[in-house]
Structure formats: C-alpha cells, structure tokens
Write a structure and sequence with these properties.
This protein has 16 helices and 15 strands. The chain is an alpha+beta fold.
Length: 438
C-alpha cells in the first residue's frame, strides 16, 4: 500500500464552503429577513417539496426537526406527511436560489481571486502565497470569520472545510453540520477520515459502495489499506481513483477547473436525482439566465453551447452545439441547451449534476439573423437588456420570467410567490414563440 502523503509546508490553503440545506435555508432566510415572518421554518418540521397534488411530488430539502421524524430527501411528500401530519411544505423557488447563490459567491470573491463554484450552493476558495503572511491557525480563524459574515449578512449558515487540497477540504466540509469549520490536512487523514464509511468518500455511489462491501471493505481506512490489484480488478480506473482519495490524494484538475476561464458557464447539483425532462428544463433555464446575464455584462457573445451532466453514479457526459450566429440572448442559449439535453439524456438514467457552458467567446458585434427570426430575435435582445437594467437598479426580484410559474408553484405557496414577486412578470414563453412587450 502506498504511504500517506508526508506533511510539508503548506504553499496554499483551500476552503470548501457549502451552504447548509441550501434550498430550505434560502427560503427560510427570505421569509424571515424580507417578508418579516416570525417563525423560522428551519426550527420546525418543514420541507421544500414539489406539487403535492401530483403523484411525483417529492421532498427536495428538509429541516433538522423534520429529519427527526425520519423524513428523507427524495421520498414522496405523501409519505412524509404521514410521518409528520403537521409538516410545513414550502414550494421550490429557483429564482430565489439563483439570487442567493450569487450573493454567496460575491462574498467569497472578496477574499480571493480564485473562487471555483462547484454547484449552486458550494464552492472552493483557493489562497496561494498566503503562507508568508498567515499560518495555519490564522487561516482557520479566517474560515470562522467568513462563516460568520455569511450568516450575519445573508441570513443562512455554511460549513467550511480547510485543507491544502480540494478533495480533503470538501471532505472536511461534510463533517458534522450545520454552521461548522473543520480541518483535514494530510496528517489528519488517518484519524479523521479513515474511520468513516466508504459511502462518505467522494465519488463513491451506491453501486461502488455495494462492490466494496462485497469485498469486505466498509471504511475509508480499509479501502486505503486494501490491495491495489484487487480494487482495480473489480472497479477498474474508478477504483484506482477512489483509493487515491482514501489515501488523501487530490482531485484531478479537470474536476475543479474554472470553466469561466475558457468561456462562460454555470452548473448545479440537484437536491434529488433529475429524472424528468420538465425538471431538467427548469434547471437549464435558471443556468442559461445566469450565463446570458454574464455575457451581456461583459459585452461578449458566444457561438458554442455545451451541456454537461453527471449521473447518480458519477458518470460524466457532455455534448456541444455550434450556433448559426454568435449570441448572448438567454432564450437562444436555452433553446440550444434543451436540444443538447434531449440528445444527451437517455430518459432513464438519473442525473445528479447539470451544467451549461459556452465557448468561442468574441466581442459584441453584428449578428447574422435568419430573415424568419429577425423580428423575434431583435425583440428578445432588447428585452434581455431591459431585464438586466431593471435588475441592476431595483434588484433581482424586480422582474422574473413567466416560465418559472409553469410548475404551479404559486398555487402551493400560500401567497409566498405573490408577495415576493411584486415586480413585473415577463410575458415570455421560452418553450414556444410567444413574446410580448413589457
């Protein structure tokens, strides 16, 4: 067995910051801080869930009190209500989640120019060259200060993992929650990580855990000490990778590369597996809206759109599309993303993470419109810029897309969306061709 990494002087520090129960925390923070509600849904049995009138309505996130009733993420809402008849159900609000995520990332960017967003509710922050100014103790103190600032300014809590590599920082961040700071440096791996079950190891999905259990491997330490040939024989290259993780190795650079260095993109990890096209398209729209806004802010256009997805067993897939003309219009990016998604997804395999990325960036210039789409695209271009200007001046919630109302969220909200959505509703149907003026 390979030896554990020998501790060396730290040349960089890596923080992994993860929002605690993000969807429920963001909804709770909004209700308390903006709507002025006295009751905090984080302190009572509550969930974020889909339409309970539909058969597929499921629990997307749960509060700590709800967890005590045995309620689990992904179970039907009907089953959850049987466990807790007084359960409070809050509808998902993806517009709010995108806004909260942006505020979260903006704070992180004040601490380092190397912020790598991994999903809508988690990111790495890399500190390089700080070793001459700050020792390890000072960096841990900084982690506590960052955690407290997010809680005080944004109203929700995070966990912060501190290490000198990405994998160990992420693992540390997943230790006991909520509102905690944990360290996991190479010399701490044997004590802190090895006793954990293999299911806690990054990229160990259900099938992998089952194989390891059949081999008699149940803890991360047992995997680290296991015969390399045996692990590789049963799990191929994936086994080699996770055994390296068990020994304190880092992630492959491609897993944490900042896509924005090559183009503009965004991704998110869904709270439950994506198993329907409707859910996927809703998430794609949120991602495309973020990407389109960034493109217009930087006065650039793109001509390649790609969709990346990771299945529940961490198989990675992606496809891309060359556009007929460069664009920074949200609807055109979304249309391409949906076409790619339809070709990429087999309609059976559950998907855990989804991302939209772009390439072939160029400065804004003349566009080549199809004569049949010219009028519609000109309207969309003007409309997108008007939306951007209103949001900059009046806030993210001043304008929202009618497409986000298609999931009957407003019927389940008990007035929440109506109160929050006090701005203008855009009469724009991104799945059809209905475009109206503001």
């Amino acid at each position: 067995m390979a030896d554990l990494p020998v501790p060396v002087a730290v040349g960089r520090y890596v923080f992994h910051i993860d929002v605690n129960s993000a969807f429920l925390s963001w909804s709770a923070a909004y209700r308390v801080n903006v709507l002025g509600e006295a009751e905090d849904i984080r302190q009572i049995p509550s969930i974020v869930g889909g339409d309970q009138e539909k058969r597929h309505g499921i629990v997307l996130a749960k509060s700590t009190p709800a967890k005590k009733f045995g309620i689990q993420t992904g179970e039907p809402i009907v089953a959850a209500k049987k466990k807790c008849p007084g359960l409070v159900i809050v509808p998902p609000d993806y517009g709010l989640y995108v806004t909260s995520s942006r505020a979260f990332i903006r704070i992180l960017e004040e601490y380092s120019d190397q912020v790598i967003q991994y999903s809508i509710d988690e990111a790495w922050v890399v500190f390089e060259g700080f070793e001459k100014l700050y020792g390890r103790d000072q960096m841990v103190t900084l982690a506590y200060e960052l955690k407290a600032r997010i809680r005080d300014e944004l109203g929700f809590t995070v966990n912060v993992g501190v290490s000198d590599n990405f994998l160990l920082a992420k693992t540390a961040g997943d230790f006991s929650k909520p509102d905690k700071v944990h360290t996991l440096f190479p010399e701490e791996v044997e004590q802190k990580m090895w006793p954990l079950p293999v299911s806690e190891l990054f990229l160990c999905g259900r099938a992998t855990v089952g194989t390891l259990h059949r081999l008699g491997i149940r803890t991360i330490g047992e995997l680290a000490r296991a015969d390399e040939g045996m692990v590789r024989a049963h799990l191929k290259k994936h086994g080699q990778a996770i055994q390296g993780f068990a020994r304190g190795g880092d992630l492959d650079p491609g897993m944490v590369s900042h896509e924005a260095n090559k183009g503009y993109g965004n991704s998110l990890t869904a709270p439950v597996d994506i198993v329907t096209g409707e859910y996927a398209r809703h998430l794609l729209l949120s991602l495309c809206e973020t990407v389109g806004t960034r493109l217009r802010n930087d006065e650039v256009m793109i001509s390649v759109v790609s969709v990346h997805l990771t299945t529940c067993e961490f198989q990675r897939m992606n496809k891309q599309m060359q556009l007929a003309s460069p664009t920074n219009i949200t609807e055109e990016i979304y249309e391409a993303a949906c076409q790619i998604w339809n070709r990429l997804w087999d309609h059976n395999t559950p998907v855990r993470q989804i991302g939209v990325h772009t390439a072939k960036v160029q400065e804004e210039g003349g566009r080549q419109y199809s004569i049949f789409d010219m009028e519609k695209n000109e309207k969309l271009e003007k409309l997108n810029r008007t939306i951007d200007q209103i949001r900059v001046r009046y806030g993210e919630d001043a304008v929202f897309r009618a497409s986000f109302l298609k999931s009957n969220v407003s019927h389940m909200s008990g007035g929440l969306n109506k109160e929050r959505r006090s701005g203008v509703t855009l009469g724009i149907d991104v799945e059809g061709e209905n475009v109206r003026n503001l």
